[in-house]
Each structure stands twice: as structure tokens, then as C-alpha cells.
Amino acid sequence: MKNNMIEEIEKYARENDIPIMQKDGIDFMCNYIKEHGVKSILEIGTAIGYSSIKMALVNDNISVVTVERDEERYNEAIKNINKFGLEDRIKVHLCDALDFKIDEKFDLIFIDAAKAQYIKFFEKYKVNLNKNGVIISDNLLFHGFVENIEQVRSKNLRQLVKKLIKYRKFLEENTEFKTTFYEIGDGIAVSKKEE
Q1: The pTM is what?
Q2: Under a CB-based contact definition with an 8 Å cutoff, are residues 74 and 101 in contact?
Q3: CATH number of domain containing 143
Q4: How many structural domains does the chain have?
């Protein structure tokens, strides 16, 4: 039953051009959550609720706070979360993540929103990490464009790819966090605070 519902969300995303995590990317995340006993998650970029739902389904004691600024996607996310009966464990906020305020601490912060703002998201929310928490970022390969920027024709797209390259450099040079990069899905970075 749940698998059918997940497939429906995947189909909706495909048909409406809504970016959701690639299958092996979300599987990697869910395994990480399981293996590291993650209980609390802050997600920047809800879209239609796909990854929040997949993460919450890993274990009954996982709670997710997620932020989405697009009203249509927000409404679709609420609908999907309610279908799974997860409204008690997934709290969706309609808000720009750069304006969102929260004092809570989380085991995992997942960045999957406006790619041009990744550094700002990272800097803003790192204070919300629990002691052994991690920040996971998606789209670091961005359909292979990051490795092959010379193939990007569109000026806007090139700007975006440059920002992702800058973000990757920011992670590599960050002395506060140690980041491991994985060529899984669309490119995933796991950043753990140095003790």
C-alpha cells in the first residue's frame, strides 16, 4: 500500500517537473538515518513532501520539520503527508528558509532547496545541529553539470552551477566541519562537525 502511494508521488513529480531526490540518493539517506539512529530532522526544501515522508517512514520515532516557500508545493506536501498519516511527525512550514526561525536542535539537517543559497542555508542552520549531528546536501553533481560546466549553454544555469562549485569548495575548506562527498544520486555531501 505505502509503496503504491510513494510511486504516485514519484509519478506526480515526473509529470509536473518537480525535482525530488533520485532513488539511490534517498535510499542512501534513509540508510544513513537508520544506521546512525537519527530521530530529528530539519529539511530545507519540502517540495511535495517526498523525502520527508521517506525519511519519517524509516522509524516510528523520527520527527521532521520541513520548510517550503512555494505555496502550491506546500499544499501538495500537506496532502501527501496526510495520506500517510504522518501529520503528527512531519511539520511543514510555508516560509522562505532564509527567513525561517527555529531554536530546536536536530540530529540531521538536510539541504535540498534553492541551490544558489546553499552556503547561506548551511551557515544559518549549523547552530541547530545536535552534538553529533550532520548536515547532508543534495545535488552536488547537478546532473553532471558541476563536472562539465563548459557544456552548459544557458547563462542562468551556468551561474547556478558556479554557485554549486563554490559551495563544494566552501565545504572542502570548512575547518569546522569534515565533509565526505558521495557520487550517489545527484551527488551528496555529508558534513559532520569536527569535535
Answers
A1: 0.92
A2: no
A3: 3.40.50.150
A4: 1
